[in-house]
Amino acid sequence: MKLVLATSNKGKVREIKALCKEYEVVAYSELIKEFEIIEDGDTFKQNALIKARAVYKALGDEDVIVLADDSGISVDVLDGQPGIYSARHAGVDANDKDNLFKLIKDLKQKGVASSPAHYTAAIAIVTKKGEYSVHGWMYGDAIAQTRGDGGFGYDPMFIPLGFDQTLGELDEELKKKLSHRFKALSLAKKILKSLL
Ligand SMILES: O=c1[nH]c(=O)c2ncn([C@@H]3O[C@H](COP(=O)(O)OP(=O)(O)OP(=O)(O)O)[C@@H](O)[C@H]3O)c2[nH]1
Ligand SMILES: [Mg+2]
């Protein structure tokens, strides 16, 4: 089954391809020109559905299955921020590094070396048979420094619960089995099976 990913994030594409080996996974940019999708939902779920619907419509092929991921990190000491704004934490044109260092600065401004935090991933699936959404979470601590350079985004400052190292230091294979994305995709796969 061909699965089209409605994302322009190369880290997500890499992880989802590695986690969905049983499917033929392609980023939508491999099929059509990338275009801007306004993520103006109030929740991860709404934004994932906005992305999946936009790409399904743009592809114009009703038999295709489109999957989108909307995700982010929520930090307790920051009252759950940046949350759905994780990709724009340091501004609209911010890249992963800008966002990472802005979050570290925020923790330092609060006067803490770390804070409980969690990642959320909402996965939306859009097909001619309907629309579906599922979630996954990964809990741990956000620390006010970077360690390691594995993963992507905020991974170098995130220590998953039960570990001493950041996702930047831990093996990518381990993240695969722990992550919010892995948990949401496990549920998404049950839906995909039911669509066959
Ligand atoms: O270190 C990280 N490890 C992860 O596993 C992870 N998952 C999400 N994020 C961050 O959360 C935002 C997503 O925003 P987002 O869902 O809008 O995606 P995006 O804008 O990058 O691409 P798209 O899918 O929208 O095209 C971005 O800042 C990501 O860096 C992660 N950071
Ligand atoms: Mg985005």
Task: Characterise the protein shown here.
The chain has 5 helices and 6 strands, in the order E-H-E-H-E-H-E-E-E-H-H. It has 196 residues and is an alpha/beta fold. It has a single domain, classed as Maf protein. Strands 2-1-3-4-5-6 form a 6-stranded mixed beta sheet. The chain is globular. The mean pLDDT is 96. It binds ligand CZF and magnesium ion. The site of the ligand O=c1[nH]c(=O)c2ncn([C@@H]3O[C@H](COP(=O)(O)OP(=O)(O)OP(=O)(O)O)[C@@H](O)[C@H]3O)c2[nH]1 has 22 residues, from strand 3 and helix 3.
Summarize the structure.
This protein has helices at 10-19, 44-59, 96-109, 172-178, 180-195, and strands at residues 2-5, 24-27, 65-75, 114-127, 130-143, 158-160.
Report the sheet with the most strands, covering strand number, pairing sense and barrel closure. Answer: 6 strands, mixed
The succession of helices and strands, N to C, reads EHEHEHEEEHH
Bound molecules: the ligand O=c1[nH]c(=O)c2ncn([C@@H]3O[C@H](COP(=O)(O)OP(=O)(O)OP(=O)(O)O)[C@@H](O)[C@H]3O)c2[nH]1, magnesium ion
Give the overall shape, derived from the CA principal axes: globular
In terms of DSSP E residues, the strand content is 25-35%
Structural class: alpha/beta
Total beta-strand segments: 6
Q: Remind me, CATH topology?
A: Maf protein
> Helical percent range?
25-40%
Give me the CATH architecture, please: Alpha-Beta Complex
The gyration radius over C-alpha positions equals 17 Å
| Mean pLDDT across all amino acids | 96
| CATH top level assignment | Alpha Beta
How many H/I helical runs? 5
Strand arrangement, major sheet = 2-1-3-4-5-6
